Amino acid sequence: MILLQPHSSSPSWLVCWDGLHLPSFGTDSFTMPAIANAMGRFFLHIYKTLLNRHSFLGLLRHILINMTFILIWITTFKNAWRIDASIRPQIHVKDLEEADHTIFDITLTGLSIQCILSVLGYSWMYALTRRSKLAILAALPPFALNILHAATHTLCGPLDVFAWLSYGVIHFVSPFLAAFWLWLFASPGVVSIFAWCFGIQNCLGIITHLSMPTAAPWYGDQYGYPLPPGNYSMPGSAAGLVRVDAVLGTHIYANAFKASPLVFGAFPSLHGAFSCCCFLFIARYSRRGAYMLGFYVLWQWFSTMYLRHHWRIDLLGGLIYSAAVFSMFYRSLQRIDKAYTTGVSGGNGWQRLFHGTRLQFCFDRQPETSYEAVSLDDHGDGEYVRMSVDQALRTHREEDLESAWVEDMGGTWKTRDPTDSR
One Pfam family name from the record (predicted)? Predict the structure, then answer.
């Protein structure tokens, strides 16, 4: 009979990338040809890891396809000023402020609406994941927004800088950092889903901005009450960021917002949607990432309100847009995760980058064992019995894929077969 058993040999301790070993410490190891050869192999391995069995043109085509909606969003935003004002809809300068007070003020009506929104958030997360403890988190945003809003009324220099770091700096790099992290540690293919979700939510946001233009809180601060009617010739405003310009001794934000191609686009807040989209993806695969991105979402919400760029309802709208698009692609994420846990799609970026080294499974604790067939003489019937190694590996990888965050809180984002009838 034949069984599969682990090899007794263990991988070398030397760092190895696709046949590239670190040079030994002999006198001949640090000659220029040796160093050049080692560096050449190193960068070739990085290049092959990035390609991941694609050709260069194939990878470029793949990236452009995944970025379709992102490019549409950027192009539309940059050229929004070209749309003739005569065919653009009326600007709503009062509606958001009135709706914000109706929903979030501590009144019987406001509390009732907040409770309804919490129930809807809980129901959405439970329907998506079937995890009650995780669904509780989705019930908190209306109350969290109120708490954060209460902290925005005191202005000071340190808070100006604190808000600027999130709103004016991290906001622009967060999607790239999230995509890179997902490429490194999430299932292969998740970055593509992230790009589609990110692009679609932003396209939906800018469609809303163009079809229902709304004024931000700075509009009342700048033009006074009662609010004058808005028109498309009005320049944008940096609002609270002018204080940051004063600290930095520049006019960067004042000039940038004054020349904004889309002035009346308060609802939904794409700043809020950016952070929520990053959170939903990172939190699915990392406990620490969930904590960090959860803090970033709250930080971004506080900053947008503190700097007078968005109402609470705008941030809630950004969350809803992001959650809705994430839900559309949730089944696709399950299929991608299943392909990864069963070994069909290969390793993620980190595993490919450090293939054959002890760092390969540093984060997901995969066993570094291979299996060979050995004959068993105590069965003479010539039968072959094969251990269910694939099933064992699949079970182990599914367990490791579940983030410790979800295991601890009891809200597991369980990877299930979409065809499973259970």
Answer: PAP2_3
